[in-house]
Every structure is written in structure tokens, then in C-alpha cells.
Design brief:
Length: 234
């Protein structure tokens, strides 16, 4: 963990406001040639960590983590879970909230030399980390001919979703994301006709949710997703 002096140095620097993406003048930081935006820079990521540690003591952080784990355990024991809805093309899907690490702006993937894989699009930097960009839409056979007009106010625009698929972390490009919602295990329809036969191995079932109108979304089996990605790893 960084010392208080180094924390203050990072926080007082604020290069992202002076010469970076949030500068009032034309950005002049050399790192932007590599990262494209301050969000993907190690300095900005370190500043965020310092901000957290400067506000809370280590004991408080651990206590907050314990409280969150206890709350999630209580909800799970009651059969209540949480999921994040996201759209690929015209279809809506769900992932367990605990499996979603972060959500970032959509950026082009960097191709991997000598790798020819239909499902792996390359590597993407997110918050100072590099992730494998996996095309879940191709795996599901979802065509991209369905186009919904982007609307920033309504949250309709492409983003990258970093997912913890068991022992593997991947980035998935999605067309839209909605806020997490809670559901009871009895809400899962495991025999819904809406699920394509070819999708069955990857999904647990389907759930109705509001977006704001009632929509059917398919819930991914995170353990099956892990095996799928492992099978495609170079």
C-alpha cells in the first residue's frame, strides 16, 4: 500500500485535469498516445486507489467488505439474487452482479499476432489492466444487423463489460447495459420457449425484468461461460 506522502503526491498531481483528457485546453500528455483516455492510464487508476485509502482506514475497508459479504450471504440464503441486464443486438441477457468487475467505454481491440480465432477479437486495456476481448455475440450467433439509435441520456450505447468467468477475466462488448436488479430463484423459468436450443448449454433460464417495459432476459451460467472461454484460449 502507498504511504501517505506518496498518496498526497499522486492526488495533488491531477495530471488528468492539467494535461490529460479532462484538461480545459488541448490534451498534451504523452501517455494518451498509448492509452487513448486517462481512464486506461496506470496513474489515474493509482490516484483512484489513493483517494479511497485517504478517506477510509484499512480497518474500515475490511469491515465494509465483511458487511457486504454478510449481506450477500443473507440474500442468497433467502433465495434472492442480483443480476445485471445487458443487450447484444436485439436480445437481452443477464449476468450475476458479483461476476461483473467493471464497465468501461467501448474501444477497439488490439489484435494478437498469429492468432486466428473467430471468438477472440484481441486485447483491450481497461482501468490499467489488459483483458482478452471475447465475442459473446458470435458465440450465441447473434447478428449485428439490429441497430438501435444510440442515446446517451437513456444509456443506449456500446460499452465493454469486464466479467469474472470463474478463473478467467474477459471483456465483452455489449450494445446496452441496465442497472442491476434483484430476483428470487423461483422467478427463473428453466423451460422457456424463448431460449434457442443452441443456447441451452450456456444458460440457466430466463427472467422477466423491467427496462422500463417488461422484457425476457436469459441468465448465463457463469461456470459454463468459463469452460467456453477456456476452450477458445490460445
Amino acid at each position: 500500500m502507498a504511504t501517505n506522502n506518496s498518496n498526497n503526491e499522486v492526488l495533488n498531481n491531477k495530471c488528468w485535469e492539467n494535461i490529460g483528457s479532462w484538461s480545459s485546453q488541448s490534451p498534451s500528455c504523452e501517455q494518451l498516445k498509448k492509452t487513448r483516455h486517462c481512464r486506461h492510464c496506470d496513474v489515474f487508476a493509482e490516484a483512484a486507489k489513493c483517494k479511497v485509502y485517504s478517506r477510509h482506514s484499512e480497518d474500515n475497508i475490511f469491515q465494509q467488505a465483511r458487511d457486504i459479504i454478510e449481506q450477500q450471504t443473507t440474500l442468497s440464503n433467502e433465495g434472492i439474487f442480483s443480476a445485471i441486464p445487458f443487450r447484444m443486438g436485439p436480445k437481452w441477457f443477464l449476468l450475476p452482479t458479483h461476476a461483473v468487475i467493471s464497465i468501461a467505454v467501448n474501444i477497439p481491440a488490439h489484435s494478437i499476432p498469429n492468432l486466428k480465432n473467430y471468438y477472440i477479437k484481441g486485447l483491450v486495456p481497461v482501468n490499467g489492466e489488459v483483458y482478452l476481448c471475447f465475442s459473446l455475440s458470435r458465440l450465441m450467433g447473434i447478428t449485428r444487423d439490429y441497430i438501435e439509435t444510440p442515446d446517451l441520456k437513456k444509456g443506449i450505447f456500446e460499452r465493454l463489460m469486464v466479467v469474472n468467468a470463474g478463473s478467467i477475466r474477459i471483456a465483452i462488448r455489449v450494445d446496452e447495459i441496465r442497472e442491476a436488479f434483484r430476483y428470487h430463484e423461483s422467478d427463473i423459468n428453466k423451460e422457456c420457449n424463448n431460449i434457442k436450443y443452441s443456447w441451452a448449454p450456456y444458460l440457466i433460464g430466463s427472467i422477466f425484468f423491467e427496462k422500463p417495459k417488461t422484457t425476457i432476459a436469459c441468465l448465463f451460467d457463469i461456470f459454463e461461460l468459463e469452460q467456453i472461454v477456456k476452450n477458445q484460449m490460445p
